[in-house]
Write a structure and sequence with these properties.
binds pyridoxal-5'-phosphate, 27% helix, eight-stranded mixed β-sheet
Length: 427
């Protein structure tokens, strides 16, 4: 039992680290800027928090960097599930060579954004007949997840009088892990087990459908450049073996993606030159059967994740058991991933800052959202300049799996505003 009042023997609270703040958000006169203006000015114009602000110039830069680094032969597709916000998707459609989608709803959004169906591919389990019909009618390539889906797609094509464009998603005997390749295969909801792929492709060809090639997706959010390079090499080798077995050359191979971004303290960005060097080596030494093949990668998070921020306003500042709590108008209903509840085992802090740092001392604060659940924590014991009610908090790396991947109806606070910003009158 401690004495009433002060607790002199209480251990001082130690700050927990947060992830690296991505490039592109300069601090000018103590204010964080995006797209050439202080974040707070954008928020004043929007007239609303919480808000997701996406910077079009950062999207441009990211795609340009990737193109410059990778072999020219490699097409870059945007996996729209990372961020399907209309203006951003339209922008990405202009930057990328294709759009990868994963539902009939995404198909409608992509068509509305002006993406061309010949450059779209549609993956995902449990595609309904209605979804297949819409995709085949539009001329989208379907990445088949099973033999049953292949049958239905062929029947739907016959009924419509349209030759369906069909690729087979392969469930490979390896996945994207550390540097070692884990063999042995695994039971998955995605793709057709590799040993059954040749038979399926022969059936597709015999049925008169347009066989496009393979889709081989081995994993996501990896920062291990060597593992990414090795996975791409394995993928090309597997595609070649399958093609030899089938006896036909594929037109197109989707090599998957999986490039991650640094979210947490200690994370290092992907080293593109490592991946590019290996891929160039692969392209230079392609097996004969893949000589004329087109190659693509599909990336979501890597292309858009760092180009967006989530801005929320401090509504209340309180002390509990000696710790400061900044209670904000946003929360996990918009930014589930930053709260640590979207596919993470241990909760760690996303990069965070105040929109405007004051001159006060640093203090250790808990940044919590407005939801009545202890899960709603955007920053756990982070050290920031002293902040007051009304100040703005920025959560970085909010461009992917934010607004569209969070339970917005939970507790009824409503959606965040989203906006794509174009740089104005700089210089
Ligand atoms: C989710 C997904 C992607 C995008 O993953 P990122 O980690 O955002 O790059 C790409 N392809 C497929 C098949 C996916 O399911």
């Amino acid at each position: 039992m401690s004495a009433a009042g002060a607790a002199p023997d209480k251990k001082p609270i130690k700050p927990k680290p947060f992830g690296p703040i991505p490039a592109g958000f300069p601090m000018v006169d103590g204010k964080v800027h995006i797209a050439g203006k202080p974040v707070a000015d954008h928020i004043d114009e929007i007239g609303q928090t919480p808000a997701f602000l996406y910077d079009a110039a950062l999207l441009d830069r990211k795609v340009a960097e990737l193109r410059a680094a990778m072999p020219q032969r490699l097409a870059i597709h945007y996996a729209m599930k990372a961020n399907p916000y209309g203006p951003l998707l339209r922008h990405m459609t202009g930057l990328c060579d294709g759009i990868d989608l994963a539902s009939g709803g995404e198909l409608q959004i992509a068509l509305a954004a002006g993406a061309s169906p010949e450059n779209m591919s549609f993956a995902g389990p449990a595609k309904t007949d209605a979804e297949l019909k819409a995709a085949i009618s539009a001329g989208v390539t379907i990445n088949l997840e099973s033999e049953g889906e292949a049958k239905r797609a062929i029947i739907i094509g016959d009924t419509l009088g349209i030759t369906p464009r069909l690729a087979v998603r392969v469930n490979p005997d390896f996945d994207l892990r550390g540097s070692g390749m884990r063999m042995g295969g695994g039971a998955k909801a995605f793709g057709v087990d590799q040993e059954r792929v040749p038979d399926l492709v022969r059936q597709i060809i015999d049925a008169g459908a347009h066989w496009r090639g393979f889709h081989i997706y081995a994993g996501s959010q990896s920062l291990d450049s060597a593992a990414l390079a090795e996975t791409q090499a394995n993928t090309i080798a597997l595609a070649a073996r399958l093609a030899e077995d089938i006896g036909h050359a594929p037109e197109h191979i989707n090599l998957g993606g999986g490039f991650g971004i640094p979210y947490f303290s200690g994370d290092q960005p992907v080293n593109l030159s490592v991946i590019s060097a290996e891929l160039q080596r692969q392209f230079t030494n392609l097996p004969e059967i893949l000589a004329d093949c087109d190659f693509a990668i599909e990336l979501g998070r890597y292309l858009v994740g760092e180009a967006g921020i989530y801005v929320t306003r401090i509504i209340d500042r309180k002390i509990s058991h000696g710790e400061v709590f900044l209670a904000c108008d946003g929360g996990l209903h918009h930014q589930l991933a930053a709260s640590g509840n979207f596919g993470t085992v241990v909760r760690r802090n996303y990069p965070v800052s105040l929109a405007q740092a004051g001159n006060g001392p640093e203090e250790i604060v808990n940044i919590v959202g407005c939801l009545c659940t202890p899960l709603d924590r955007l920053g756990d014991r982070v050290s920031l300049k002293r902040a007051e009610t009304g100040d703005l908090v920025i959560i970085y790396c909010a461009g992917a799996y934010g607004a569209s991947a969070s339970p917005v109806n939970f507790l009824g606070h409503g959606a965040a505003k989203e906006i794509l910003l174009y740089e104005t009158n700089l210089q």
